[in-house]
Design a protein that fits this description.
With 294 residues, this protein is of the alpha+beta class. Helix 3 packs antiparallel against helix 5. The protein contains 6 helices and 17 strands.
């Protein structure tokens, strides 16, 4: 029987953050088995590790219905789980998008993990795609923040970055699941990074991921990394920058993601705490959950 750990990332409270499954020894598991386990666990992602006897691991990430190339919150959860067992320090995760270093440290709140993204990228988004996104989100162009123009950013997965003028607009998110799933599947987007900027270094985010069969993530590390690159490339932050992203509040699962960008290293660093989930106390409400349509 495969041992599956359950951790919540970007929180110190198992009732907050984004839950991830972790299989620390996936030796001998094929893709079908990993997909079945991820579906049974039911979290937005489960990480499967195969070690080589050192502090380096091959890692694959599966959502309930599909494999994804990289998952930030499961990486944070995995880093903390490894740190608890092997001690603080650096781990190397060999993912489908490249090698991702994860540094684990201890502070007064527990163990904290920080991953360094693969080489990020930013590209323009077609006006027709913006219109299709807004239609699926049931938003209008008048809702958009003109100081934060739509783009598509990458840091292990592609995410359209869409910023709105008000917290109320973000809080009232009620999108067309089927329409957004079709658009994101066609474009190869992992999640939609929907944000509102409260202050120069403080953002609130929501992240639908219908292409992976997930209505919404309470914390999305890969999207936070993509946002960091977006902010740097558009010169929307002073470098070096440390940006806090609050996510999951509207789902009842508060999450805090810290994003670091500088001028010398193109890669983005994302950090947060993680904590084990006791099954008998688990509350699945607000987790990134499979949609009813899937």
């Amino acid at each position: 029987m495969t041992d599956v750990l359950r951790y919540s990332a970007f929180t110190t409270d198992p009732r907050g953050g984004n839950a991830a499954g972790i299989v620390l020894d996936a030796t001998g598991l094929d893709e079908t088995s990993m997909q079945r386990i991820a579906s049974d666990v039911g979290y937005s992602e489960t990480a499967f590790l195969v070690g080589d006897g050192s502090r380096a691991f091959d890692v694959r990430y599966f959502a309930p219905s599909v494999e994804v190339p990289f998952c930030g919150h499961a990486t944070i959860a995995t880093g903390v789980a490894l740190g608890e067992r092997l001690g603080v320090g650096r781990f190397l995760l060999r993912t489908r998008v490249g090698v991702v270093p994860v540094d684990v440290t201890a502070d007064d709140a527990g163990l904290r993990a920080r991953f360094t993204s693969v080489e990020p990228a930013l590209r323009d988004i077609a006006d027709a795609d913006v219109s299709a996104l807004l239609a699926a989100l049931r938003w209008s162009r008048a809702d958009l923040d003109p100081e934060l123009p739509p783009r598509v950013a990458y840091a292990g997965g592609w995410h359209p970055v869409i910023a709105v003028r008000s917290r109320a607009r973000l809080a009232a998110l009620d999108y067309d699941f089927g329409a957004l799933r079709q658009l994101m599947t066609d474009r190869g987007w992992l999640t939609a990074q929907l944000v509102w900027r409260e202050a120069p270094a403080l953002f609130h985010a929501r992240n639908p991921s219908p292409g992976a069969g997930i209505v919404e993530d309470p914390a999305t590390g890969s999207a936070a990394a993509a946002l960091g690159h977006y902010l740097r490339e558009l010169r929307l932050v002073d470098l070096p920058a440390r940006v806090v992203v609050r996510q999951g509040d509207d789902l009842g699962r508060p999450s805090v993601l810290t994003v670091e960008v500088d001028a010398d290293d193109p890669r983005v660093k994302v950090s947060g705490h993680a904590v084990a989930i006791a099954l008998e106390a688990e509350n699945l409400e607000g987790h990134g959950r499979p949609a009813a349509e899937t």
